[in-house]
Structures are given as C-alpha cells and as structure tokens.
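Example 198.
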Amino acid sequence: MAQITDPLRQHDWNSPEYVEDWAQRQRRNETLRARQFSLIADLIPFESGDAFRFMDVGCGYGALSKFLLESFPRATAVCHDGSAAMADLGGERMKDLAGRFEYVISDFSKKDWSRAAEGEFDLVVSCNAIHNVRVGEIIRDVYQEIFGRLRSGGHFFNLDRGSATMEDQVAWFRSAGFLDVACHQKSSGLSLYGGSKP
Ligand SMILES: C[S@@+](CC[C@H](N)C(=O)[O-])C[C@H]1O[C@@H](n2cnc3c(N)ncnc32)[C@H](O)[C@@H]1O
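Predicted structure in complex with S-adenosylmethionine:
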C-alpha cells in the first residue's frame, strides 16, 4: 500500500507505534476536543434523530467521527485517512459502533483521492488533518474534491491549524465553490471554517 508522507517530516503516520503514541497524547486534550466537537455538532444542520451520511477527512482514530455518530444515532460515516495504522486503531476504538462506519484509505495530497469512497455525502468534516499537506494550492484542491462529493445543499466544516490566514481559508473555500463561508471559531491554534454547496 502507498504510504503518506509529511512534507515537514514531523509525523510518521504510517508507523503503528507513532500512531498509538500520538493517540495517547490526545488524552490530555480530551476536554478541549470535546468542546470543539460539540461546536461542530451544533453547527450541523440536522436534528439528532435525522439519518445522514458524512465523511471525516483525515479522521485518524475517529475521535470526531465517534463523537458525531454518538450525537446523531442514525448517522453513518465514511472514515477517511491515509494511514492504515490509524484505521486499525480507529476500528478498534469504535467497535461499539460497528456497522455505522467504514474506513477508506487514500492520500488527500493526490488527485482524485476521494474516489476511495463511494456515493455522495450530506456532510463532510475534518479535524486537524488537511494542514498536513502544508501547501496552499493543495489545500484548495482538497476543498475542491470535497465540494465535488457533497450533495447540493451539503455542508463542509474544517477545524484545522496551520499558517493559513483567514483570508486564505475563505478564498480557498470560495474558489472551491462553497457559499456562506464563515470562520466559526479561532482558538488554541485551531480555526473552524464552514461552507455550504449551493
Ligand atoms: C493530527 S492527525 C488528526 C486525526 C483526527 N482527525 C483527530 O483529530 O484526531 C492527522 C491525520 O491526518 C492523516 N493524514 C496526514 N496526511 C495525510 C494525507 N496526505 N492523506 C491522508 N491522510 C493524511 C494522518 O494519518 C492522521 O490520521
């Protein structure tokens, strides 16, 4: 299987040991992460009993997917990531939700990466992942690919870090085709942007 690379060589997402250690380190951020996930859940324009299908891009071991699947008991998820080690860990951590999620593996810095998943989505979310490509043009291409996979009226929320300015993020969302683009939060180094597909 192809391996994803971190252009800055800060992370080794392909290594099961590195991934396990990274996941362990998230424990100290659990309270903050739950607050951030809760904000995303509040912005999602569905009622808790609605059935909808979402993709979590660069979902890692599925922290955000798990939160959303528990908040929306009739939702289903495609958990996307480039790391088989993350997918293995996520499958284990979310085994209570088996049947409501599937993992797909591909490198979102490559063209047509979303073909790993089938069908269209009501919602796409991402947390702390897309900045890993490090290059603005590639981030914009990732947003464009996401736009193409959403149904008309669907939404995309990206909670992420990185050096991009608000102007960059808004421009990338808009050039991908998104409307109602907004920055919903900026704190602790993470910013939450969202947009909808007309
Ligand atoms: C910082 S972790 C965040 C994981 C998860 N979203 C969370 O918040 O717990 C970044 C994730 O992005 C994935 N990733 C990094 N570069 C990628 C790429 N080029 N293609 C696909 N996934 C990538 C990594 O495997 C990792 O799971």
